Amino acid sequence: MNQGEIRALAQLMTWKTALADLPFGGGKGGIAVDPATLAREELETLTKRFTQKMAPLIGVHEDVMAPDVNTNPQVMAWIFEEYSKTHGFCPAIVTGKPLELGGLPGRLEATGYGVAYITKLAARDAGLDLKGARVAIQGFGNVGSHTARRLAELGARVVALSDVRGGVYRKAGIDVEAAARHTAEAGALAGLRGTESLSNEELLALDCEILIPAALEGTINCDNE
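Below the sequence we write its predicted structure tokens.
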């Protein structure tokens, strides 16, 4: 993560709200750290310190924080908690918070479901029958996992999934719920029973009808083979 990347993401947020005809601008912020290397207490301390620094720039009518890569309802709860210490009880300062703190049901799944429905419409416009269509999804985090679940429910055949450590493939289709359970237990997709292993690069070159990049930006570029 660097300043240029954050600026680009802020610009994309501005365009997104404009295209949706929402009365908002766009902003983005982040911390250059791999949260997987931090203990829970360290991540909490870092998040709250970040909130202290951002407090003068955010507000219900100025800038509301929302989750993105490597954040979750717990992180948003820490931001809400820290901001409320100096500004009073203010649940509207963040989205994506836990339900018990006023979060919305379905918020966690929303982005992935949105990708699935856009895929359904794109398939329709392309004259492609979604039922039985082979789908490969790079990324099995919050977005990729819920996209895979919904597409499977819509009848698509999810043949490949991947995360930061690599991917798995099954010609007949992957049981997405089994993949989610395995990931929760093992911490990665690798080793999922009944599948073959493959790299993220190999996933991008798979023979399939639908390819969905659901990880970081820049996945599809001129260096892909």
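The radius of gyration is 19 Å.
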